[in-house]
Write a structure and sequence with these properties.
Largest sheet: 7 strands, parallel
CATH superfamily of the largest domain: NAD(P)-binding Rossmann-like Domain
Number of strands: 9
Number of helices: 9
Strand content: 5-15%
Structural class: alpha/beta
Number of domains: 2
CATH topology of the largest domain: Rossmann fold
Order of helices and strands: HEHEEHEEHEHEEHHEHH
């Protein structure tokens, strides 16, 4: 109750009633304002959630092309990306043999054939409007000493490991450049960073990839196209079973060759499954600004560093581990 004894004599009864009514209305105004704020906040939260859901859906709708996806690390990568919800297309030289064994679409591709590359891109673009990620995985291993290996074999090694990757990249660049977005991921090797005996041509092809993609990464920055290289070390794969070997056998190399091949074979047998390689590729796909190189596996950072700072230390260590000293 308002005590009139305390009221100023200048305030009329009408003014008093006005003040009284405002006291009654003011709390309701605050309440209405608070309700409006809560309503506005809830709408903002709903809008943000919707935008996040749309973004996630767009990210998961990324189209990814993986070359050499019918076996080995390529198959593992393609399956992992498919399981993560991406639209995955794999390639194989003989897709009809593998289509019923994989959950993603498998296209025909021989990376050594210009016409096959054109056909693959044509078929792919007939099914999708954009390509967000190209993963150049197709490749093979040529082992043997330089002298025991025919130059034609060496040319074929580069045709697959280096030029195949380059040609696929070149075929995809106009699409990604017009999109002003994309990612190119090359599966290289620890041997693309170090030198080991009886793998000279394989090492050279992987070293060439490193130089190519380092330069390309800088060229494509203005177009929002990211370039990364994955450098796996020893993992348990079928690379040795599918390897090609030098077509000559020179007696002088026989003892050393057997020791090196045995060392590599035993190292592969003791190695873990290549799951971490697929994990790294998935990480690159999801990252907004991936870095250039991603070494994966034991000693993949240490060995290149040792070779860089002390080549003699690296050589002596390898020769001892391989039983050559």
């Amino acid at each position: 109750m308002i005590n009139s004894d305390h009221l100023s004599p200048q305030i009329s009864s009408e003014e008093l009633m006005g003040q009284f009514e405002r006291w009654l209305i003011f709390p309701g105004t605050i309440l209405n304002f608070g309700e409006n704020c809560l309503h506005f906040a809830s709408k903002c939260i709903f809008t943000c959630k919707l935008q996040v859901q749309i973004y996630i859906k767009m990210e998961k709708n990324k189209v990814i092309l993986v070359t050499g996806a019918s076996s080995g690390i390529g198959l593992l990568i393609a399956n992992r990306l498919h399981d993560a919800g991406f639209t995955v297309f794999g390639t194989s030289r003989n897709p009809e043999k593998h289509r019923d064994k994989v959950p993603f679409k498998l296209l025909s591709l021989d990376v050594t054939s210009d016409q096959s590359i054109r056909n693959c891109i044509t078929v792919l673009m007939s099914e999708v409007r954009t390509v967000d990620v190209l993963i150049n995985n197709a490749g093979g291993l040529l082992a043997g000493s330089v002298e025991e290996t025919a130059l034609e074999q060496a040319y074929n090694q580069f045709e697959t490991n280096f030029w195949g990757s380059v040609k696929m990249t070149k075929a995809m660049l106009p699409i990604m450049r017009n999109q002003r977005s994309g990612k190119i991921i090359a599966i290289s090797s620890l041997i693309g960073l170090i030198g080991v005996p009886f793998n000279s041509y394989y090492a050279a092809s992987k070293h060439a990839l490193e130089g190519f993609y380092k330069s390309l990464r800088l060229e494509l920055r203005p177009f929002n196209i990211k370039v990364s290289v994955v450098e796996p070390g020893f993992f348990k794969t079928n690379i040795d079973r599918g390897a090609e070997y030098g077509n000559e056998n020179i007696t002088d190399y026989e003892n050393t060759r057997k020791k090196v091949f045995r060392f590599f074979s035993e190292s592969l047998a003791k190695s873990p499954a290549p799951g971490p390689v697929a994990d790294v590729v998935l990480k690159i796909v999801n990252e907004k600004s991936p870095k250039y190189n991603y070494p994966v596996g034991a000693r993949t950072r240490l060995l290149p560093a040792i070779q860089f700072f002390s080549h003699n230390l690296f050589e002596n260590g390898f020769l001892k581990r391989a039983g050559l000293e």
